Amino acid sequence: MNNFKIPLHIIAVAGIVINDKNQILMVNSNNYGWAFPGGQVEEGENLINALKREVFEETGIKISVGEVFCISSNTKNHSGYNGIKEIPTKIILDFICRDVGGQIRASIENSESRYIEKNKIGKLISNLALLERFKAYLNYNKRPTYLDYESRPNFKLKYKKLL
Predict the structure, then answer these.
(1) How many independent structural domains does the chain possess?
(2) Residue 43 belongs to what domain range?
(3) Is 6 within a domain?
(4) CATH code where residue 85 lies
(5) Tell me: the pLDDT tens digits for 79-120?
(6) pTM of the predicted model, to two decimals?
């Protein structure tokens, strides 16, 4: 008998969205505190369209999507919520984006959306996985960073490499 199981992974995207004042768009998430906007790629959706949709849904801002600065693997399943028993592993692609219009606002997923000076963001981020991804942005020099970590029960960075 074949015991092969097709692996399940959530694919997610997020963006460092920069405005014309060189500030970065952040959301005060209901789940993670301050974060850059993003979310899950839906079935049949490509990465770029997913990121544009997620940023607009969360902030009201329209974006152009540039290069990938970080690829992350959250490599441990964890307990679910809202009727979901288990959350599978996750692959996250972080992009550098530009604001191209829209009206900034909060959403049902966050209490506030606003542009923040780059040098103030590190102090706002309490989620350690997100902080590692933000550091990858700060250190980006045309080569993305790869991160392998477990986010629960406690954050554990298992591997970090410049690609």
Answers:
(1) 1
(2) 22-162
(3) no
(4) 3.90.79.10
(5) 666 666 767 788 999 999 999 999 999 999 999 999 999 999
(6) 0.92
